[in-house]
């Protein structure tokens, strides 16, 4: 039985992922995360919030992994290579430009102010650092079924934003979307058996996917913090060109293109 939503969205999602219906979608999200984290490097990885009793960043190549959450799971404390910080996710106790990679697993879906949270994450991330975000697709088949047909409070009270809107938020902050992907199209979990219905729905949704409509239930986005290099303005300064000749003779040529004059200085020993 899943936890009530009053205890928090991520604890309720963690409990739902352990259920028979939710474990199938958790496995899909793990595949997306493993693929996204495989080619990201750095010294410090910060994960904001916990959605599983397992270490979801175990396959990351980053040296130091830090989990920041309001409540720490006893099972995760036994995991090797994972450090813990207990804090409120709305007010992150992390300095500026210290993290190479920040993971937000469904963190924006329960944040009181997702824009403020993204600005905090932006200040924590180093230049050219990466941010990885996962969330539920509002038009995903299983998401809509649990949200409107089964009356699952977990999905009804969550803030579900589309991937397109998330790209717009990141673009305003100066991020380049490096990659994104959706989970497999499915309306039912692997434990449910509706072969004819599932086959027809997946064929229908795959047709829409070819024209740009994504119906995967979970998305994973990787964005890179863009830092524009300053461009020098004013006069174009350049060093004089030296030419070394045989013996001890050195010629120094300096051209002044503005006046068209040429001066030649010769040094002899």
Order of helices and strands: HHEEHEEHEHHHEHEEEE
Overall mean pLDDT stands at 78
Largest sheet: 7 strands, mixed
Q: Please count the beta strands (DSSP E, at least 2 residues each).
A: 10
What is the helix fraction of residues, given as a range? 25-40%
The coarse silhouette is: globular
Oligomer: single chain
- Strands in their spatial order, largest beta sheet: 3-2-1-4-5-7-6
Rg from Cα = 27 Å
What's the end-to-end separation, in Å? 93 Å
| Highest-level CATH class | Alpha Beta
* Count of domains: 1
Give the amount of beta strand, in percent. 25-35%
Keywords: Methyltransferase, Transferase
Protein name: Methyltransferase domain-containing protein
InterPro entries: Methyltransf_11 (IPR013216), SAM-dependent_MTases_sf (IPR029063)
GO molecular function: methyltransferase activity
Tell me about this structure.
- This protein is an alpha/beta fold.
- It has one domain (5-225): Vaccinia Virus protein VP39 (Rossmann fold, 3-Layer(aba) Sandwich), CATH 3.40.50.150.
- It is 30% helix and 26% strand.
- The chain contains eight helices and ten strands.
- The strands form two sheets. The protein has a seven-stranded mixed beta sheet with strand order 3-2-1-4-5-7-6, with helices on both faces. It has a three-stranded antiparallel beta sheet with strand order 8-9-10, with no helix packed on it.
- The longest helix has 18 residues, at 20-37.
- The protein is globular and about 70 Å long.
- It starts with 8 loop residues before the first helix and ends with a strand.
- Residues 247-269 have low confidence and may be disordered.
- Residues 76-133 form the Methyltransferase type domain.
- InterPro entries: Methyltransf_11 (IPR013216), SAM-dependent_MTases_sf (IPR029063).
- This is Methyltransferase domain-containing protein.
- One of its GO terms (molecular function) is methyltransferase activity.
- Keywords: Methyltransferase, Transferase.
């Amino acid at each position: 039985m899943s936890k009530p939503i009053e205890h928090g969205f991520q604890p309720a999602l963690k409990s739902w992922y352990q259920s028979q219906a939710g474990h199938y979608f958790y496995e899909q999200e793990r595949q997306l995360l493993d693929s996204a984290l495989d080619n990201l490097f750095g010294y410090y990885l910060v994960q904001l919030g916990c959605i599983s009793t397992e270490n979801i960043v175990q396959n990351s190549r980053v040296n130091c992994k830090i989990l920041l959450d309001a409540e720490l799971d006893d099972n995760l404390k036994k995991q090797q290579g994972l450090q813990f910080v207990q804090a409120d996710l709305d007010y992150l106790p992390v300095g500026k430009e210290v993290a190479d990679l920040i993971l937000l697993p469904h963190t924006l879906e329960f944040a009181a102010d997702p824009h403020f949270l993204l600005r905090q994450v932006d200040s924590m991330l180093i230049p050219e650092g990466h941010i990885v975000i996962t969330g539920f697709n509002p038009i995903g088949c299983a998401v809509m079924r649990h949200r409107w047909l089964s009356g699952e409070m977990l999905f009804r009270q969550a803030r579900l934003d589309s991937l397109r809107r998330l790209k717009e938020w990141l673009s305003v902050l100066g991020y380049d979307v490096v990659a994104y992907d959706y989970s497999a199209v499915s309306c039912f979990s692997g434990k449910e058996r509706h072969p004819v219905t599932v086959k027809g729905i997946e064929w229908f949704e795959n047709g829409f996917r070819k024209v740009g409509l994504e119906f995967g239930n979970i998305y994973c986005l990787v964005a890179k913090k863009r830092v524009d290099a300053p461009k020098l303005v004013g006069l174009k300064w350049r060093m004089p060109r030296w030419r070394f000749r045989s013996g001890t003779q050195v010629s120094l040529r300096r051209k002044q293109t503005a006046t068209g004059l040429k001066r030649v200085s010769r040094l002899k020993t």
